[in-house]
Amino acid sequence: MEEPRKIVATHGVRCFSKIKMFLVALTGAYLAKSLSGVYMSSMLTQIERQFNIPASIVGFISGSFEIGNLLLIIFVSYFGTKLHRPIMIGVGCVVMGLGCFLISLPHFLMGRYEYEKAISPSSNLSSNSLLCSGNRTETSMPTPDPAECEKEIKSSMWIYVMVGNLIRGIGETPIMPLGISYIDDFAKSENSPLYIGILETGKILGPLIGLFLASFCATIYVDTGSVNTEDLTITPTDTRWVGAWWVGFLICAGVNILISIPFFFLPKTLPKNGLEDNMVVTKSDKEEKHQEKAKKEKRGLTKDFLPYMKSLSCNPIYMLFILTSVLQINGFIILFTFMTKYLEQQYGKSTAEIIFLTGLYSFPPICIGYLVGGLIMKKFKITVKRAAYIAFCLSLTEYLLSFFNYMWTCDDFPVAGLTTSYEGIQQPLYMENQFLDDCNTRCNCLTKTWDPVCGDNGLAYMSPCLAGCEKSVGTGINTVFHNCSCIWSSGNSSAVLGLCKKGPDCTIKLQYYFIMSVIGCFIYSLAAIPGYMVLLRCIKSEEKSLGVGLHAFCIRVFAGIPAPVYFGALIDRTCLYWGTQKCGEPGACRMYDIHNFRRIYLGVPAALRGSSYLPAFFIVLLVRKLQFPGEVDSPKPKVAKVKLTEKESECMVALRSPEFENGKELKTKL
Per the UniProt record, which residue ranges are transmembrane (predicted)? Predict the structure, then answer.
């Protein structure tokens, strides 16, 4: 009577505990974490405008995620394998959800967003104060209020966003190292590349969804529902526009918490994939093995940490791989974090349009590349040597193609007194004394207010007053200004709100930029899986989880945290015109010198990535001289010779199979 029930229960657990169930849940976790991560990166421009902060602080907010990872990554990677890995991943997903909720909280705690206008928001003057008037009184001039400034600085609501992003980083910590090690422990070696390719696909689908969500939210005004959008004088293409960034974070919070549920029902260990149907183990045998394993894990919980660290630090391939990754990731973080800002300034498109095009052109080829790379590794049983060659050649090809982006460039927006003279002649640098001209000196205009208008002569002006406009017709975004003394044209000397649009040739160049992006993303993603295989196969199996965690730790310390901060500071140096806060202090940048911006945005990542190919070349040379377990492409005598040489070297012990050292049967690990 007892036996059938045991068989049924065991069968039920087996059906639920297969590695594919964990793979599906982990793919969902990858999707959720990458969804919120890419949404955060896409909304950085909106957050910058909402809180009126410079790009350097925005970079610090972006780097706070990596700081959260940094706090726990090493300990989770090592001690996590001794604990219940699925439950730890589930808890991490819940923490990420809480972090996303905290990021959205400032919207509900602070007042409505008030964008910069030519008229002081605190005054009750009529709209004619926007216009040229020779008898303007001093009451129309916004006077800085120190008390207001101090209050604004003390509030610093962006700190909520930074702390929420840090908590999101803490929650993301266990997902990758524990998930990868769990799959590697319980999946067939030949299936691991395909499984990792599937995981990478989930990590790409998440950003694709995140970009489309960000594009949608960026088209909705931040205070929609509480303000009349018909009264707005700005459009999504305006540098003062702020989309409903908080909506997407609430959605991300819900997704992360829902994804966490399956992990709390998965077991701590699984039978090795492919062997569970051939093994008949009694319940008592299982209990004995489990108890014995638990004792060993408890004894080795701390005593192996330093030997493992020493072994990894003496592994030349592993250390060179970390150096290569740090240099490469520095370049990619810079490119992705500030891509929206750069493309907005370069091609004159709205945030929503740029985000949508980025998702449309970039992520599908990356997704296909990861899948194709995983299938090629599985079908042709690519060795570590060949994987190193493939990764190096493909990555270098994509790097060389990226230099075509220097060709697809546009000029600055033509703004009188800023990038061009009032006669329409381009000037190289911003000069404050050129804000005013003979045509508007009688108007007593404010020179520190950004409310641009586009004249029918194709030249923009920083405000209707600086354009010399005396009359206005219409309301909201449909306002038209007439009798503008600074606009010399064959028309009626009128202007409309907003900067002048860039020409159609600039839109064509944007298409070329994204076409090159499609080719580059596909080639680089093909190289990602072979490159990751080199990392996993150059370290011993019991060190794998710690090795993956240490690799991620170094990337966060030397790339994820500093890259957005120092690059944000470099971008701030290219700003031509800073916005003004209500207290009179500088706020977010409204316009950049696009030529200097382009040189920094494309040049710094190119230099970083170019230097990474030197250590990558040494990896290829070292891999040629070594024979890894399970590879049969070299003669047997040579294999024996390499193993003998390894015994003589203490540092090269990291490249030997641990089972061989203990006198056990040699196994092939991923």
Answer: 21-41, 53-80, 87-109, 157-183, 204-222, 242-266, 317-339, 354-376, 512-536, 548-571, 600-623
Whether the pLDDT of residue 670 is over 70: the answer is no
Task: Assign domain 1-110+157-275+291-297 to its CATH architecture.
Answer: Up-down Bundle (1.20)
- AA identity, residue 438: D
What is the SS3 assignment for 539-551?
A: CCHHHHHHHHHHH
Residue with tokens 């950004």: 450
Asked which of 25-34, 247-256, 360-369 is least confident by mean pLDDT, the reply is 360-369
Q: What is the pTM of this model?
A: 0.77
625: which residues sit within 8 A by CB, 6+ positions away?
none
Spatial contact of 27 and 199, defined as CB atoms under 8 Å apart: yes
The residue with greater pLDDT, 254 or 489, is 254
What are the residues facing 221 on neighbouring strands? 243
Sheet containing 495-497: give its strands across.
460-461, 453-455, 495-497, 480-482, 471-473
From residue 389, how far is each of 65, 322, 380, 530 by CA, in Å?
Answer: 33, 17, 15, 9
How far is the C-alpha of 650 from the C-alpha of 666, rounded, in Å? 20
Structure tokens at 376: 């090629």
How far apart (Å, rounded) are the C-alpha atoms in residues 513 and 342? 12
Tell me: the pLDDT tens digits for 529-576? 888 888 888 888 778 778 887 887 888 889 988 999 999 999 999 998
- Other beta carbons within 10 angstroms of residue 11's beta carbon come to 10
The rounded distance, in Å, linking the Cα atoms of 537 and 321 is 12
User: Do 245 and 50 meet the contact criterion of CB atoms below 8 Å apart?
Assistant: yes
Q: What is the pLDDT of residues 276-293, one digit of tens each?
A: 444 444 444 444 444 455
- Strand bridging mode 460-461 / 480-482: unpaired
Distance CA 135, CA 607 (A): 56
Name residue 577's beta-bridge partners. Answer: 591
What's the average model confidence in pLDDT over 164-189? 83
Contact 370, 523 (CB under 8 A): no
Query: Cα(25)–Cα(20) distance, rounded to whole angstroms?
Result: 9
